[in-house]
């Protein structure tokens, strides 16, 4: 069975077979690999522009952070190799909107106060069951609610990493989930269908976020980019190594790991479908 090169990111999925099933999984990224484009970029930019024109709450910025947006745009222009179309922006939030329209990634801005790292702004057009307006001003722990186990497993580690991230270092990670829909814009919390029939697994979508973190030199703000990608489960089945790792992850995973992958109530049929497809050589 042939594979779609546009779904080759499936080979990057982090699916360790043993605990803990919630980890940072960060890797260093070369500066020239930040904000990459591909064959899907034009369509993704058009989708973002349409959503930004339809909704007036997808771009937010706290007062006092205009300089961070200016710095972000400068860093982005160096990475992209061209000036960003500022769309006659006359304010920092309009400039942030222009920056968001220039790349397929969502842009999240985090700043440190005396107590914690807090969300101070962003352009969030392809949300995975959350809204920027609901999380503004929130700490890292509050932003990650309701991720199962974040507060006990990752919270302190993530806070320490943010504190220590050097200006000249960019890191990346990738998460993934099972979704019933391939729609990129999913701001509302969803109740995913449960099922027993293994054939229903073929109708699911694997949704993934390729995320990067980098600190801006002058403002100290950490930019969190999120590039959303989706693939049908048939693309997983077409990659035997990925299919085997996914099945093993689900078989050995805890209820917490299943919840964080939106897999509750359908783990067994997904595993059976993956195993069956491998036996059939598909």
Q: What descriptive keywords fit this protein?
A:
single chain; 282 residues; alpha+beta; 10 helices; 35% helix
**Approximate helicity band:** 25-40%
End-to-end separation: 6 Å
Give me the Rg, rounded: 19 Å
Q: How many strands appear in the DSSP assignment?
A: 7
- Average pLDDT works out at 91
The amount of beta strand, in percent, is 15-25%
Tally of separate helices: 10
* Strand and helix order: EHEHHEEHHHEEEHHHH
Strand order of the largest sheet: 1-5-6-7-3-4-2
Uncertain segments are none
Computed structural class: alpha+beta
Largest sheet at a glance? 7 strands, antiparallel
Write down the overall geometry.
Answer: globular
How many independent structural domains?
A: 1
Give a structural overview.
A hairpin with a 4-residue loop joins β3 (106-112) and β4 (117-123). α1 (41-54) packs antiparallel against α3 (92-102) and α8 packs antiparallel against α10 (267-279). The chain has helices at 41-54, 66-80, 92-102, 132-135, 140-143, 150-164, 233-237, 240-252, 255-260, 267-279; strands spanning 27-29, 59-61, 106-112, 117-123, 170-179, 205-215, 222-232. Helices cover 35% and strands 18% of the residues. The N and C termini lie close together (6 Å). The chain has 282 residues and is α+β, with helices and mostly antiparallel strands. It contains ten helices and seven strands. Strands 1-5-6-7-3-4-2 form a seven-stranded antiparallel beta sheet. It has one domain.
């Amino acid at each position: 069975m042939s594979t779609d090169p546009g779904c080759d990111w499936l080979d990057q999925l982090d699916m360790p077979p043993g605990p803990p099933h919630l980890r940072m999984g960060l890797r260093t990224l070369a500066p020239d690999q930040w904000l990459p484009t591909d064959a899907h970029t034009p369509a993704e930019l058009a989708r973002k522009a349409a959503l930004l024109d339809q909704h007036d709450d997808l771009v937010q910025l706290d007062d006092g952070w205009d300089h961070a947006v200016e710095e972000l745009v400068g860093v982005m222009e160096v990475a992209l190799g061209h000036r960003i179309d500022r769309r006659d922006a006359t304010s920092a939030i309009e400039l942030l909107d222009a920056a968001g329209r220039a790349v397929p990634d969502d842009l999240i801005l985090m700043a440190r106060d005396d107590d914690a790292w807090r969300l101070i702004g962003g352009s969030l057009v392809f949300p995975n069951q959350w809204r920027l307006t609901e999380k503004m001003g929130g700490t890292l722990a509050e932003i990650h609610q309701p991720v199962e186990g974040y507060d006990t497993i990752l919270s302190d580690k993530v806070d320490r990493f943010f504190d220590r991230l050097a200006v000249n270092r960019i890191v990346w990670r990738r998460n993934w989930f099972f979704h019933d829909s391939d729609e990129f814009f999913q701001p509302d919390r969803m109740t995913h269908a449960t099922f027993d029939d293994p054939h229903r697994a073929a109708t699911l979508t694997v949704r993934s976020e390729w995320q990067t973190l980098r600190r801006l030199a002058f403002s100290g703000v950490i930019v969190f980019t999120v590039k959303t990608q989706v693939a049908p489960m048939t693309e997983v089945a077409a990659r035997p190594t990925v299919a085997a790792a996914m099945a093993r992850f689900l078989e050995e995973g805890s209820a917490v790991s299943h919840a964080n992958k939106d897999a509750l109530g359908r783990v067994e049929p997904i595993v059976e479908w993956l195993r069956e497809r491998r036996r059939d050589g598909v």
